[in-house]
Amino acid sequence: MRYFLIDTDTASDDAVALIMALRAPDVEVVAITTVAGNVGVDQATRNALYTVELCGSSARVYQGAAEPLQRPLQDATWFHGRDGLGDRGYAPVSARPADGDAVQVILDCAAQYPDLELVTLGPLTNIARALERRPALAQRLKRCVVMGGAPCCVGNVTPAAEYNIWTDPEAARIVLRSGLPVDLIGWHLCRGPAVLSPADIARTLALNTDLARFAIDCNGHARQAFLEQTGEEGISLPDPVAMAIALDRTIGTSWSRHHVDVEADRELTRGMTVVDQLNVAGNQRNCGVWSHFQGRNPATEVCWTIDVARWKEALFRALASAVL
Fold first, then answer.
1. CB atoms near residue 13 (< 10 Å)
2. pLDDT of residue 322
3. pLDDT tens digits for 153-208?
4. Domain 2-320 classified CATH 3.50.50.60?
Protein backbone atom coordinates (compact mmCIF):
# COMPACT_ATOMS: atom_id res chain seq x y z
CA MET A 1 0.00 0.00 0.00
CA ARG A 2 1.16 3.52 -0.84
CA TYR A 3 0.32 6.48 1.36
CA PHE A 4 -0.64 9.87 -0.12
CA LEU A 5 -1.29 13.23 1.49
CA ILE A 6 -2.98 15.60 -0.95
CA ASP A 7 -2.86 19.39 -0.56
CA THR A 8 -5.46 21.12 -2.74
CA ASP A 9 -7.26 24.38 -3.51
CA THR A 10 -10.13 22.21 -4.66
CA ALA A 11 -11.76 23.38 -7.87
CA SER A 12 -12.92 21.47 -10.93
CA ASP A 13 -9.68 19.83 -12.05
CA ASP A 14 -8.56 19.23 -8.43
CA ALA A 15 -11.80 17.32 -7.83
CA VAL A 16 -11.03 14.97 -10.71
CA ALA A 17 -7.50 14.46 -9.39
CA LEU A 18 -8.92 13.61 -5.97
CA ILE A 19 -11.20 11.03 -7.57
CA MET A 20 -8.19 9.39 -9.23
CA ALA A 21 -6.36 9.05 -5.91
CA LEU A 22 -9.38 8.07 -3.83
CA ARG A 23 -10.34 5.33 -6.30
CA ALA A 24 -6.80 3.96 -6.76
CA PRO A 25 -6.74 0.42 -5.31
CA ASP A 26 -3.14 0.58 -4.11
CA VAL A 27 -3.29 4.03 -2.47
CA GLU A 28 -4.51 5.16 0.91
CA VAL A 29 -5.15 8.89 1.10
CA VAL A 30 -4.19 9.50 4.73
CA ALA A 31 -5.27 13.15 4.69
CA ILE A 32 -6.45 15.93 2.40
CA THR A 33 -5.39 19.45 3.37
CA THR A 34 -6.94 22.49 1.75
CA VAL A 35 -5.45 25.84 0.85
CA ALA A 36 -6.72 29.10 -0.61
CA GLY A 37 -6.10 29.44 -4.31
CA ASN A 38 -8.60 28.73 -7.08
CA VAL A 39 -11.27 29.60 -4.51
CA GLY A 40 -11.20 30.70 -0.90
CA VAL A 41 -10.17 28.04 1.58
CA ASP A 42 -13.71 27.60 2.97
CA GLN A 43 -15.03 26.80 -0.50
CA ALA A 44 -12.00 24.63 -1.31
CA THR A 45 -12.76 22.62 1.83
CA ARG A 46 -16.43 22.22 0.90
CA ASN A 47 -15.44 21.06 -2.58
CA ALA A 48 -12.98 18.54 -1.18
CA LEU A 49 -15.61 17.19 1.20
CA TYR A 50 -18.12 16.94 -1.65
CA THR A 51 -15.65 14.96 -3.77
CA VAL A 52 -14.73 12.63 -0.90
CA GLU A 53 -18.43 11.98 -0.30
CA LEU A 54 -19.05 11.38 -4.00
CA CYS A 55 -16.30 8.74 -3.98
CA GLY A 56 -17.71 7.01 -0.93
CA SER A 57 -14.42 7.61 0.84
CA SER A 58 -13.67 8.16 4.52
CA ALA A 59 -10.58 10.29 3.86
CA ARG A 60 -10.28 13.17 6.31
CA VAL A 61 -10.19 16.75 5.10
CA TYR A 62 -8.32 19.40 7.11
CA GLN A 63 -8.64 23.11 6.40
CA GLY A 64 -5.42 25.03 5.89
CA ALA A 65 -4.12 28.45 4.92
CA ALA A 66 -6.68 31.13 4.07
CA GLU A 67 -4.23 33.38 2.24
CA PRO A 68 -0.72 33.33 0.77
CA LEU A 69 2.28 33.97 3.00
CA GLN A 70 2.74 37.64 2.14
CA ARG A 71 0.11 38.63 -0.42
CA PRO A 72 -3.65 38.98 -0.72
CA LEU A 73 -5.33 36.06 -2.41
CA GLN A 74 -6.17 36.46 -6.09
CA ASP A 75 -8.44 33.54 -6.87
CA ALA A 76 -9.22 31.84 -10.18
CA THR A 77 -13.01 31.90 -10.02
CA TRP A 78 -13.02 33.49 -13.48
CA PHE A 79 -11.75 30.12 -14.72
CA HIS A 80 -13.51 27.61 -12.43
CA GLY A 81 -16.71 29.47 -11.52
CA ARG A 82 -17.64 31.20 -8.28
CA ASP A 83 -17.91 27.92 -6.39
CA GLY A 84 -14.90 26.36 -8.12
CA LEU A 85 -17.03 23.54 -9.55
CA GLY A 86 -18.51 25.36 -12.50
CA ASP A 87 -21.49 26.88 -10.65
CA ARG A 88 -23.58 23.77 -11.31
CA GLY A 89 -25.48 24.03 -8.03
CA TYR A 90 -24.27 20.82 -6.42
CA ALA A 91 -25.98 19.94 -3.15
CA PRO A 92 -24.34 21.14 0.07
CA VAL A 93 -22.28 18.54 1.90
CA SER A 94 -23.24 17.33 5.34
CA ALA A 95 -19.68 16.43 6.37
CA ARG A 96 -17.44 18.86 8.21
CA PRO A 97 -13.67 19.20 8.04
CA ALA A 98 -11.75 17.25 10.65
CA ASP A 99 -10.42 19.07 13.67
CA GLY A 100 -6.76 19.93 13.44
CA ASP A 101 -4.24 22.33 11.99
CA ALA A 102 -3.44 21.36 8.40
CA VAL A 103 0.24 22.22 8.80
CA GLN A 104 0.54 20.04 11.89
CA VAL A 105 -1.33 17.26 10.11
CA ILE A 106 1.28 17.34 7.33
CA LEU A 107 4.07 17.07 9.90
CA ASP A 108 2.33 14.34 11.89
CA CYS A 109 1.61 12.26 8.79
CA ALA A 110 5.23 12.57 7.65
CA ALA A 111 6.29 11.22 11.04
CA GLN A 112 3.71 8.43 11.03
CA TYR A 113 4.24 7.22 7.45
CA PRO A 114 7.94 6.85 6.52
CA ASP A 115 7.10 6.42 2.82
CA LEU A 116 4.57 9.26 2.64
CA GLU A 117 4.10 10.81 -0.80
CA LEU A 118 2.87 14.40 -0.88
CA VAL A 119 0.85 15.58 -3.89
CA THR A 120 0.20 19.31 -4.15
CA LEU A 121 -2.50 20.66 -6.46
CA GLY A 122 -2.58 24.32 -5.41
CA PRO A 123 -0.40 27.11 -4.02
CA LEU A 124 2.33 25.80 -1.72
CA THR A 125 1.41 27.86 1.34
CA ASN A 126 0.70 24.94 3.68
CA ILE A 127 3.88 23.13 2.64
CA ALA A 128 6.04 26.20 3.13
CA ARG A 129 4.59 26.74 6.59
CA ALA A 130 5.27 23.10 7.46
CA LEU A 131 8.89 23.46 6.29
CA GLU A 132 9.30 26.66 8.28
CA ARG A 133 7.97 24.90 11.37
CA ARG A 134 10.10 21.78 10.82
CA PRO A 135 12.83 22.06 8.15
CA ALA A 136 13.66 18.37 8.54
CA LEU A 137 10.38 17.61 6.77
CA ALA A 138 12.34 17.93 3.51
CA GLN A 139 14.21 14.75 4.42
CA ARG A 140 11.21 12.87 5.82
CA LEU A 141 9.04 12.74 2.71
CA LYS A 142 9.61 10.05 0.10
CA ARG A 143 8.46 12.31 -2.74
CA CYS A 144 6.55 15.50 -3.40
CA VAL A 145 4.65 15.79 -6.68
CA VAL A 146 3.99 19.48 -7.35
CA MET A 147 1.47 20.55 -9.97
CA GLY A 148 2.85 23.95 -10.72
CA GLY A 149 5.21 26.03 -12.74
CA ALA A 150 5.90 26.82 -16.34
CA PRO A 151 9.41 25.47 -16.92
CA CYS A 152 9.03 26.17 -20.63
CA CYS A 153 8.14 29.81 -19.84
CA VAL A 154 4.59 29.80 -21.20
CA GLY A 155 2.43 30.84 -18.29
CA ASN A 156 -1.34 30.72 -17.81
CA VAL A 157 -1.76 33.73 -15.52
CA THR A 158 1.10 35.89 -16.84
CA PRO A 159 3.41 35.22 -19.79
CA ALA A 160 6.04 33.97 -17.34
CA ALA A 161 4.10 32.17 -14.63
CA GLU A 162 1.64 29.39 -13.85
CA TYR A 163 -1.16 30.18 -11.40
CA ASN A 164 -0.26 27.95 -8.41
CA ILE A 165 3.29 29.31 -8.21
CA TRP A 166 2.32 32.90 -9.05
CA THR A 167 -0.33 33.03 -6.32
CA ASP A 168 2.21 32.41 -3.54
CA PRO A 169 5.70 32.71 -4.99
CA GLU A 170 7.28 33.14 -1.57
CA ALA A 171 5.89 29.77 -0.51
CA ALA A 172 7.04 28.11 -3.74
CA ARG A 173 10.51 29.56 -3.25
CA ILE A 174 10.71 28.09 0.27
CA VAL A 175 9.64 24.66 -1.00
CA LEU A 176 12.00 24.55 -3.98
CA ARG A 177 14.96 25.76 -1.91
CA SER A 178 14.29 23.33 0.94
CA GLY A 179 15.84 20.19 -0.54
CA LEU A 180 12.45 18.47 -0.67
CA PRO A 181 12.51 15.78 -3.41
CA VAL A 182 10.13 17.43 -5.87
CA ASP A 183 8.68 16.10 -9.10
CA LEU A 184 7.65 19.31 -10.87
CA ILE A 185 4.66 18.80 -13.17
CA GLY A 186 4.27 22.00 -15.15
CA TRP A 187 1.22 23.46 -16.85
CA HIS A 188 2.64 22.69 -20.29
CA LEU A 189 1.92 18.97 -19.77
CA CYS A 190 -1.87 19.43 -19.86
CA ARG A 191 -1.98 21.23 -23.20
CA GLY A 192 -2.12 20.15 -26.84
CA PRO A 193 -2.74 16.40 -27.24
CA ALA A 194 -3.19 16.02 -23.44
CA VAL A 195 -6.39 18.10 -23.52
CA LEU A 196 -9.56 16.02 -23.39
CA SER A 197 -10.91 16.36 -26.92
CA PRO A 198 -14.62 16.27 -27.76
CA ALA A 199 -14.13 12.58 -28.58
CA ASP A 200 -12.48 11.99 -25.20
CA ILE A 201 -15.33 13.81 -23.48
CA ALA A 202 -17.86 11.64 -25.30
CA ARG A 203 -15.93 8.52 -24.27
CA THR A 204 -15.93 9.69 -20.66
CA LEU A 205 -19.67 10.27 -20.62
CA ALA A 206 -20.21 6.89 -22.26
CA LEU A 207 -18.71 5.29 -19.13
CA ASN A 208 -22.12 6.11 -17.63
CA THR A 209 -20.95 6.51 -14.03
CA ASP A 210 -21.67 9.30 -11.58
CA LEU A 211 -17.95 10.05 -11.33
CA ALA A 212 -17.58 10.38 -15.10
CA ARG A 213 -20.59 12.67 -15.40
CA PHE A 214 -19.35 14.81 -12.51
CA ALA A 215 -15.84 15.09 -13.99
CA ILE A 216 -17.19 16.53 -17.25
CA ASP A 217 -20.00 18.58 -15.72
CA CYS A 218 -17.93 20.38 -13.08
CA ASN A 219 -15.34 21.33 -15.71
CA GLY A 220 -17.86 22.93 -18.09
CA HIS A 221 -17.02 26.47 -17.00
CA ALA A 222 -13.29 25.73 -17.15
CA ARG A 223 -13.69 24.31 -20.65
CA GLN A 224 -15.07 27.60 -21.93
CA ALA A 225 -12.47 29.64 -20.04
CA PHE A 226 -9.65 27.49 -21.45
CA LEU A 227 -10.97 28.02 -24.98
CA GLU A 228 -11.02 31.78 -24.44
CA GLN A 229 -7.55 31.74 -22.90
CA THR A 230 -5.70 29.48 -25.36
CA GLY A 231 -7.95 28.87 -28.36
CA GLU A 232 -7.78 25.13 -27.59
CA GLU A 233 -11.08 23.21 -27.65
CA GLY A 234 -11.64 20.64 -24.91
CA ILE A 235 -11.01 20.22 -21.19
CA SER A 236 -7.52 20.83 -19.85
CA LEU A 237 -6.82 18.96 -16.60
CA PRO A 238 -3.49 19.96 -15.05
CA ASP A 239 -4.15 18.46 -11.62
CA PRO A 240 -5.31 15.06 -12.94
CA VAL A 241 -2.22 14.92 -15.16
CA ALA A 242 -0.11 15.50 -12.05
CA MET A 243 -2.07 12.85 -10.16
CA ALA A 244 -1.66 10.35 -12.99
CA ILE A 245 2.10 10.83 -12.72
CA ALA A 246 1.94 10.60 -8.93
CA LEU A 247 0.18 7.25 -9.32
CA ASP A 248 2.48 6.04 -12.10
CA ARG A 249 5.67 7.98 -12.59
CA THR A 250 6.43 6.24 -15.90
CA ILE A 251 3.62 8.27 -17.51
CA GLY A 252 6.24 11.02 -17.48
CA THR A 253 8.47 10.15 -20.43
CA SER A 254 11.19 12.80 -20.23
CA TRP A 255 12.73 14.03 -16.97
CA SER A 256 15.81 15.94 -15.90
CA ARG A 257 17.12 17.00 -12.49
CA HIS A 258 17.94 20.65 -11.80
CA HIS A 259 18.02 23.40 -9.27
CA VAL A 260 14.76 25.33 -9.67
CA ASP A 261 14.05 28.69 -8.08
CA VAL A 262 11.09 31.06 -8.13
CA GLU A 263 11.02 34.79 -8.83
CA ALA A 264 9.22 36.56 -6.00
CA ASP A 265 10.66 40.08 -6.16
CA ARG A 266 9.70 41.40 -9.61
CA GLU A 267 6.17 41.95 -10.87
CA LEU A 268 6.96 41.26 -14.52
CA THR A 269 8.24 37.77 -13.77
CA ARG A 270 6.51 37.09 -10.43
CA GLY A 271 6.08 33.36 -9.96
CA MET A 272 8.40 32.38 -12.80
CA THR A 273 9.94 28.94 -12.24
CA VAL A 274 13.58 29.43 -13.20
CA VAL A 275 15.09 26.08 -14.19
CA ASP A 276 18.88 25.77 -14.22
CA GLN A 277 18.80 23.58 -17.32
CA LEU A 278 22.55 23.80 -17.99
CA ASN A 279 23.39 23.37 -14.30
CA VAL A 280 25.37 26.59 -14.17
CA ALA A 281 24.22 27.56 -10.66
CA GLY A 282 27.41 26.16 -9.19
CA ASN A 283 29.61 28.48 -11.24
CA GLN A 284 31.60 30.87 -9.11
CA ARG A 285 30.18 33.90 -10.89
CA ASN A 286 26.64 32.83 -9.96
CA CYS A 287 27.39 32.38 -6.28
CA GLY A 288 25.57 35.54 -5.20
CA VAL A 289 22.36 34.76 -7.08
CA TRP A 290 22.21 31.02 -6.39
CA SER A 291 24.15 30.88 -3.13
CA HIS A 292 21.33 28.99 -1.38
CA PHE A 293 22.05 26.03 -3.70
CA GLN A 294 25.83 26.03 -3.30
CA GLY A 295 27.25 22.64 -2.36
CA ARG A 296 23.90 20.88 -2.79
CA ASN A 297 22.75 18.42 -5.39
CA PRO A 298 19.66 19.44 -7.37
CA ALA A 299 16.48 18.19 -5.67
CA THR A 300 13.88 18.91 -8.35
CA GLU A 301 13.02 16.54 -11.19
CA VAL A 302 11.30 18.44 -14.00
CA CYS A 303 8.90 16.46 -16.18
CA TRP A 304 9.06 17.68 -19.78
CA THR A 305 6.81 15.24 -21.68
CA ILE A 306 4.19 12.59 -20.95
CA ASP A 307 2.67 9.54 -22.59
CA VAL A 308 -0.64 11.14 -23.50
CA ALA A 309 -2.45 7.89 -24.29
CA ARG A 310 -1.51 6.38 -20.92
CA TRP A 311 -2.51 9.54 -19.03
CA LYS A 312 -5.96 9.42 -20.60
CA GLU A 313 -6.35 5.70 -19.97
CA ALA A 314 -5.52 6.28 -16.30
CA LEU A 315 -8.27 8.90 -16.16
CA PHE A 316 -10.84 6.68 -17.89
CA ARG A 317 -10.06 3.79 -15.52
CA ALA A 318 -10.62 5.95 -12.46
CA LEU A 319 -13.90 7.37 -13.74
CA ALA A 320 -15.20 3.98 -14.96
CA SER A 321 -15.26 2.54 -11.46
CA ALA A 322 -18.69 2.59 -9.87
CA VAL A 323 -18.99 3.79 -6.28
CA LEU A 324 -20.30 0.98 -4.08
1. 29
2. 65
3. 799 999 999 999 999 999 999 999 999 999 999 999 999 999 999 999 999 999 99
4. no
| Helix ranges (DSSP H) in the chain | 12-22, 41-54, 77-80, 102-112, 125-133, 137-140, 163-167, 169-177, 198-206, 210-217, 220-230, 238-247, 308-320
How many CA atoms are closer than 13 Å to the CA of 299, on its beta-carbon side? 23
Query: Which pLDDT does position 245 carry in this prediction?
Result: 98
DSSP 263-278: --S-STTTT-EEE-TT
Task: Note the pTM of the prediction, 2 decimals.
Answer: 0.96
Q: Considering all CA atoms of the chain, what is the largest pairwise distance in Å, rounded to the nearest integer?
A: 61
Spans of the chain below 50 pLDDT = none
Helix or strand holding residue 61 (H, E):
strand 61-63
Nearest Cα residue to 106 out of 140, 135, 130: 130
- Rounded to an integer, what distance in angstroms lies between the CA atom of residue 81 and that of residue 119? 24
- Predicted pLDDT of residue 286: 59
Side-chain half-sphere exposure of 194, counting CA atoms within 13 A = 24
Give me the half-sphere count of Cα atoms (radius 13 Å) on the Cβ side of residue 206: 6
Query: How much is the pLDDT for 291?
Result: 77
Q: Is-contact 41 15, C-beta < 8 A?
A: no
DSSP 101-160: -HHHHHHHHHHH-TT-EEEE-S-SHHHHHHHHH-TTHHHH-SEEEEE---TTS--SSBTT
pLDDT in tens, 134-157: 999 999 999 999 999 999 879 999
The half-sphere exposure of 296 on its side-chain side, counting CA atoms within 13 A, is: 19
Domain map (residue ranges) of the chain? 2-320
